[in-house]
Amino acid sequence: MEWTGGCLCGALRYRASGDPVRVVHCHCGMCRRASGAAFMTFVHFAKDDFDWTAGRPKRYHSSAGAERGFCPDCGSTLSMHETVLADRVQVSLGSLDRPDLVRVDDHVWTASQLPWLEVADDRPRFAKISDAVPSRALSDDDSEPLRGLPQGAAGGDDQ
Ligand SMILES: [Zn+2]
Ligand SMILES: [Zn+2]
Q: How far is the CA of 134 from the centre of ligand 2 (A)?
């Protein structure tokens, strides 16, 4: 199906011609800070399927390999662009016109999940990054990529 979405004020709009390639709940501290919410859900669309139909998000580097995008007018959190995931555009779940129709794949960074947040679903949960996608996310105290570390390994709070 075709998916559409945009920011709260309507200055930014997008369209995706194919279904999401992945949908993930991220519990990391950076997503919490960026969104203002308890956790953030990203919907990944193939870059070739995705177009901004009105406006463009303002982007900033939230870490070395990642930029986050937001509406410069209303401030809505909109997108994530990672160098290791250059084949896709990640948009915030809440920006979709029909967020009720997505199918969530898994949870990541559950090591940073808020202790009072109760998650009743049975989707896979990863203490840090998922095995499903590459990442260059680093812990605060480790210069090595986290990929390959056992789940639950001690480490930083942020992606
Ligand atoms: Zn806006
Ligand atoms: Zn995150």
A: 14
